[in-house]
Write a structure and sequence with these properties.
The chain is α/β, with parallel strands linked by helices. The protein folds into 2 domains: about 180 residues, Rossmann fold, CATH 3.40.50.2020; about 140 residues, Rossmann fold, CATH 3.40.50. The protein has 9 helices and 16 strands. Strands 10-9-8-11-12-13-14 form a 7-stranded mixed beta sheet, with helices on both faces. A hairpin with a 5-residue loop joins strand 9 and strand 10. Helix 2 crosses helix 9. The chain starts with a helix and ends with a strand.
């Protein structure tokens, strides 16, 4: 009897909170596992400082905090740090930072003198703020997992994408990586979709401009699917799409996990040869006129991961497909 009482006393409940970066996704995650979002107040002082108050008891609980570090990136990061500090000081047993999109991931190495490795700095700040674990999706560089000394569960949007693409039954399909770095992802898509594989080799002038590109592989008369993890200015995608069309591709689709899309990116997509952009709801994005965008939800995937992390079950099967890895 005493043992049963002790077990009940120490059973942690799951509470999911959300910052302001992507409330619709956070609500969809909780709905997928039959829960409601934890109550908290996030507001700002007149000078712009963020104020957070956790409105329910979290002492000894297993807490998950959902926050995409999408633009304004620094604001959303700081909001997350403040929320985690509040949860830690309220004696939460464990805090898992759920980052559907991990910002600053492109700054993962010193590629020129006197520059920071900001992806590592963000990892340090997350731990310093109180994160005991991280759940994220489609990191720009997988080695970022090694920047943490706490457990990291890295999911992929690919299973959600596969399901949609299989249903479309695209004829004469060739999967194209728009750059060398995405070749591994493109190969995984081509294997599952039983499609050909090609690559666009590019030379970049700066962060928003491409100098030259060439296609390696046969795409004439084919339906082309470009796959990438992230697009913001859409420079790589739209330039590659124009090249693929000139080389004889019949239709061009783009499949991107995180479509952040600034004004320049939207303008380029409106003028581009891309017939459809397929992406996910990892970042909150307003409706865009003049561009065919299909947004698939990863809420079920993240919700299932949260359930498994809480119950100390394996998360591995969430990024396996047909017995193979999605990366």
């Amino acid at each position: 009897m005493a043992f049963y009482f002790w077990a009940v006393l120490n059973k942690r409940n799951v509470i999911i909170f959300s910052g302001t970066s992507n409330l619709p996704l956070a609500k969809a995650i909780t709905a997928s596992i039959g829960m409601e979002l934890g109550k908290c107040t996030v507001s700002a002082f007149p000078d712009g400082e963020t104020f957070v108050k956790i409105e329910e008891n979290v002492r000894g609980e297993d807490v998950f905090l959902v926050q995409s570090t999408s633009p304004p990136t620094n604001h959303h990061l700081m909001e997350m740090f403040i929320m985690m500090d509040a949860l830690r000081r309220a004696s939460a047993s464990r805090i898992t930072a759920v980052l559907p999109f991990y910002g600053y991931a492109r700054q993962d190495r010193k590629d020129q003198p006197r520059v920071p490795i900001t992806a590592k700095l963000v990892a340090n700040l997350l731990v310093a703020a109180g994160a005991n674990r991280v759940l994220t999706m489609d990191l720009h560089a997988q080695q970022i997992q090694g920047f943490f000394d706490i457990p990291v569960d890295h999911l992929y949007a690919a299973p959600v994408m596969y399901e949609y693409l299989k249903a479309k039954q695209l004829p004469n399909l060739v999967v194209v990586s728009p750059d060398v770095g995405g070749l591994k992802m493109a190969h995984a898509y081509s294997q599952v979709l039983e499609a050909g594989l090609a690559i666009v080799a590019k030379r970049r002038k700066n962060a928003s401009e491409i100098e030259s590109m060439t296609v390696i592989g046969e795409i004439r008369g084919k339906t082309v699917l470009m796959v990438d993890d992230l697009t913001e200015t859409a420079g790589t995608l739209t330039t590659a799409a124009a090249l693929l069309k000139r080389k004889g591709a019949k239709k061009v689709y783009a499949c991107v996990s995180h479509a952040i899309l600034n004004d320049l990116g939207i303008s380029r997509l409106r003028k581009s040869n891309i017939d459809e952009l397929i992406t996910t709801d990892t970042v909150l994005r307003p409706a865009i006129d003049g561009v065919t965008i299909t947004t698939l939800s990863v809420a079920g995937l993240l919700g299932e991961a949260i359930k498994r992390i809480h119950s100390n079950s394996s998360v591995t099967s969430l990024f396996e497909f047909k017995g193979g890895r999605t990366s």
